[in-house]
Specification:
mainly beta, 124 residues, homotetramer, eight-stranded antiparallel sheet
């Protein structure tokens, strides 16, 4: 399929709730960047995290295969360092091929779920 | 009315919760693509689903009449195959006339409802 | 202030939950189009509603003063006819000056609140 | 990093719930503008608030350092005057360098959380 999307994306909102009411991976509080690579070439993506009081951290490197989607949880990023819980951050994604990014959070600090989602801001 | 929208749309986030706390169609956990065809010609739409570990599935074919809206539930797609529950996916919509697509999920895995919604990413 | 926005907007998703757990206006299940007119001229807006199985309804006429915001509840639209509850619809807004529209729903069918919001799709 | 974003943003939806079920800052009902300044120059931002029945209020002045993010709570704005609770408003952000803005609300009027988020409308 013809590729769709942009090479550069920003998510200004980032916050991984420090607590969860559940142990299962599906219901654990988490924040995700849902990445779609609809094109015929693998996407090599570098992520930079911005915080409030020190220099940015990164790049985190992620690959999404051709014609695949990856629902990346920020909770799972470990290298160069884990994403702190309960802390405000923002992120920029730079890919070598066009991709589409949607931002989602599931918050299970309380027993009932809360959800948010928005398409990220794209440029370039 | 003059048509409004684009011909090509992507929803990078897709996930149909595997459980529901209710049996009624209105409160069943579901994921929807709300499609608006404001123009004077019927829209013939092909949907391709992307997953994490195998080639895309599709096309699913949907028609939305002139000057009509369709709130399509991914739960209802059956041909060429049902959309798996509890699995990450993404989708691309290709229409022969301009349309507008908004993505919504109602999650009733717990007794209280959680909602998300965002306008899909448009191109072309 | 210099005006900001577009003249033509679409909200593909529309659904007023038929029930509420509360009587107060603030917590009643409702769907809103939050309209910002940051410019120096009043905005005259015509809204057309699209449904699944018959011709569009409208125009509904709304005015938003210069340098004002209006959080319009679809629940409050009465002329030419009320918006049906528990029914899928979509909407197109046409203004004579640039405006910004954001779509929000508060769902209180269950005792706890669910919220969604997204900037509408803009064109022209 | 190369800057990303726009200089002018609007959030048409604004409402700080008047009540909260919790005292902790994290779970207090609040509305936030998450601002990302990925570029190499500090961002000087002026915010104007629009309401339904009187002239706009502002500017509120905020600075976001180079390569930093700020998750600004409207609850915290005090000068020239606090943002009223339980009242509809909208906002326009004007920056001297490109930034990205995402809008989020946490509503804890009831014991369980409700969340919404969307990328703001950008222009210029």
């Amino acid at each position: 399929m013809e590729s769709i999307g942009r090479r550069r994306w920003a998510i200004a909102e980032g916050y991984i709730p420090p607590d969860s009411s559940y142990d299962s991976r599906a219901l654990l509080s988490h924040e995700a960047a849902c990445i779609l690579n609809a094109g015929d070439a693998d996407a090599n993506i570098e992520i930079t995290l911005f915080v409030t009081d020190r220099d940015p951290v990164g790049p985190y490197k992620v690959q999404v295969g051709a014609r695949r989607t990856l629902h990346l949880r920020f909770n799972d990023l470990e290298d160069p360092e884990p994403v702190p819980r309960g802390t405000d951050y923002a992120s920029v994604f730079e890919s070598d091929v066009p991709i589409v990014i949607q931002h989602t959070r599931l918050d299970s600090r309380k027993a009932e779920l809360a959800l948010l989602s928005t398409v990220a801001f794209s440029a370039g």
